[in-house]
Amino acid sequence: MEFFDFGTIFFLVAAIVIFFQLRNVLGRRTGNERQPFDPYTSARTSEKSDSTAAENVVSLPRRKGGSEADDAYAAIDAFAKPGTDLNKSLRAIRDADPSFEPKTFVDGAKMAYEMIVMAYADGDRRTLKNLLSREVFDGFVAAIADRESRSEKIQSSFVGIDKADIVNTEMKGSEAHVTLRIVSELISATRNSAGEVIDGDPETVAEVKDVWTFARDTRSRDPNWKLVATEADD
After folding, report:
1. SS (H, E, C) the chain
2. Where is the Tim44-like domain (predicted)?
3. What is the pTM of this model?
């Protein structure tokens, strides 16, 4: 006992008392304890439970022409009267391209119209290439080159668009075509190499009427439409 002093005996007794208190509080293992939480096992168990529950549910047949279909065409019906040829052709485009909405398309076409008109006046081939089909691009570039060969320049200011209406739409295979009649206001004048005005008027706002057709392959991942045809609307 010479190795034990009072302090050692005190800590030994205290440890024994603490052990029995913990044993009473925590209890013994009986084999029925809850297993530690495993997120992966839990997820698999949850999926199995969901699958079992799903097997016990009888799905009722959906009513044809339900709200989902109505919502898909709501924007089109608000834009063009249901039953009209325009409404039917717009629906056909929507069927091929679920993201298509006529109002959104018109807003985008108006922005493209301004960009194309100004790029043509400035001779900006890069901008035109991104917005035009190959055939239309070649035509625009030829006109720009002809103008440049005579050292002529177009001085243009875009005032705005008064109207932009969809007048025709159609599906050509997987390619959607939308034709708009656009009425815009533009200040434009062509000057020769001496700076003299040879066409237009730099002080007058002129009304311009165009019929432009935009197209997009609905199977393509590219969401952009391109100008594929132009004509003046007299």
Report:
1. CCCCCHHHHHHHHHHHHHHHHHHHHHCCCCCCCCCCCCHHHHHHHHHHHHHHHHHCCCCCCCCCCCHHHHHHHHHHHHHCCCCCHHHHHHHHHHHHCCCCCHHHHHHHHHHHHHHHHHHHHHCCHHHHHHHECHHHHHHHHHHHHHHHHCCCEEEEEEEEEEEEEEEEEEEECCEEEEEEEEEEEEEEEEECCCCCEEEECCCCCEEEEEEEEEEEECCCCCCCCEEEEEEECC
2. 86-232
3. 0.70
Summarised one tens digit per residue, pLDDT across range 89-130 is 999 999 999 999 999 999 999 999 999 999 999 999 999 999
CA distances to 31, 79, 116 from 226, in Å: 72, 22, 11
User: What does the block give as tokens for 123?
Assistant: 């001779």
- pLDDT, one tens digit per residue, over 143-155 is 999 999 999 999 9
Between CA 147 and CA 159, with CA 153 as vertex, the angle to 5 degrees is 120
- The sign one gets for the Cα dihedral 158, 161, 162, 166 is positive
Beta strand 153-172 with 206-217: parallel, antiparallel or unpaired? unpaired
| Spatial distance between the Cα atoms of 179 and 165, rounded to a whole number of angstroms | 8
3-state secondary structure 127-148: HHHHHECHHHHHHHHHHHHHHH
